[in-house]
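Methods: example folding runs. The two proteins below were folded one after another, and each record is reproduced exactly as written to the output file, sequence line first and structure-token line second.
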Amino acid sequence: MTASQEPKVSVVVPVYGVEAYIGQCVRSLFSQTWDNCEFIFVDDGSPDNSISVLEGILAKEFPGQQSCVKIIHKSNSGLPRARMTGLAEAKGDFIIHVDSDDWVEPDYVRNLVEKALDEDADVVYCDFYKEYSGKKPKVCMEGDVDPATGPVAVKCMHNSIIRGYMWNKLERRSLYDLQSMFVPVHGYHEDLVFQTQTLSKARKVVHLKEPLYHYRRRRRGALTSSSLIKTRKESAENMLKLYDALPKDSVPIRACGEDILLRGGWYGACILNFKLLRAHPEAMEKLLEMDYIRGCRVPVSKQRFTKFICRLIRRADKKVS
């Protein structure tokens, strides 16, 4: 198969504040053994020299890749919008996402694409390395999807059998409906929101049992109570707004609607954010109606607490009315 016959792969890379790391990322991308790639870098108003480092490496070390690279500059609007900007420019048969502070193996794209072609799969996901500064990397193995369909895969993802990361999944571009898909408001769990909508539509999902991606675990300091509250609040909003946005007869809702609700409800309840839960009355009522579900990511003890908080809110609202 010649380069012109190979399926094109669009690699979407949002860039923000990664001056110290982007060099390793782009060198690994520009050294891919799959020739038919386009690399779309979205500068999300990065305040440092990340883009200058990228441009310097491209000009000096990989001048032959110039025609395959597109750099889009935009004002800062957060990771989800940066991702959508890159997706809107993608022309490939397949899409894959890479975080600009990580790096990949030379055969990352090739092995994923060849697995997709061999298996006639819409999605291929791989294992990965978790990289720690000054420590030996840890190989993280993903679970298997059985049967290998999109609805089963998205259910597995919401229950941590496979991870919700976007960067270890090659997906057909046809799975992305940019005109109708819900775009997460915040960065926390944004990958889960995107993947819920794309993965669920796949005919066939295949696991490539090979670590090809290096996920850099950067120390950002201790997790304070205020940052934990912020994380939970933004995750709850993303999940509950996703539930509200999806048609109730859609594949994602049928496959994992209860999981979306449980996660969003728990995140809102555990930080006692009554205002947030009140903003999603349909979701709150559904949570109250649901039976307890065993064996899912949100354990029954947390489901009980979520229902307790929802009942408190409903009781308080009835007194006011």
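Second run, written to the same file directly after the first:
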Amino acid sequence: MFSLTSAFAQAPFYQGKTITVIATTAPGGTGDLRVKAVVPFLRKHIPGNPTIVIEYMDGGGGRKGANHLFRNAKPDGLTVGAMSGAVVGLQVLRESGVMYDIDKFIQLGSPESTTHYTIYTRRELGLSSLEKLRAASGIRIGAQSVGHVSYIAGRLFAYFFGLKDPKFIAGYTAPEVDAALLRGELDARANNASSVLRRNSDWLEKGLMDFHAILEVPKGAKHTRLGHLPEIESFAKTDREKRLLAMWRAFRVVGSPYMLSPGTPKEQVEILQGAMRKALKDPEFPREFLKLVGDEAEPLMPEDLTKAIKDAPRDLEVVDLLKTLSGPDPLPPR
């Protein structure tokens, strides 16, 4: 005999519910576009087609949002973290303000695992070669915040180039760094290669910026347009410095991971992991991701992301060096 009780019992858990996606980025940047590329496909593949809203929680290189997901969000399957990959490194490096345990989050997957970083300077400076860049003093390198992925990338380039007295200026949003560069408030920035070419392709095509080097993630994956640049490891002098770069690449290969709070019920975990698998394998997803983000999707499924985080190097000697490079203090001597 049919009853309303049995009908409701059979309704999908997420039907009529709202999922909040905590995005640890600011609106308008590449990180935001990555989230906007994933969310429609995630919703499509969650039984019950819930409403999904994005809540931006930028700050601390991802710490603010990760702390919220770990400490404050109810583990009921209605809050999903769209994290910066930096949250892995922040904990391994024992950075201040980290109040989460990266190994206790439940992993849903990541839309990309190939990320290249490049560093460039304003053409007006005339630093058209690495020799000229190294001869300059006091280069002002802009970034979003201390500990942000782009901030650390800029510090890595400066360290491996051996720049003279570089100045690291943080406190911008992603679009503001570009604007400050054009106004002459900054001299250089490190950035995700797909971000700069999507937003400002003329900087390369018209030579408005001088591009100096690239940091490949993973190593050996050549960028289609910037693959001719020297790779940062070619400037490494010691095995320790190579291990430093290996650790950084391991942190970044997780891409932009999606996570759930520890303690989320198994039923909701399985629903969301299954939905993420289907979303990342949806034939329309790579096209939409490329259109919005300007880069190819290279997804990590839940089990692959879990393994990547578990296997991230935690060599204490290298941790101490990378921690110094990630912070506000002067660059260490080589």
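Comment on the second run: The first helix runs from residue 4 to 10.
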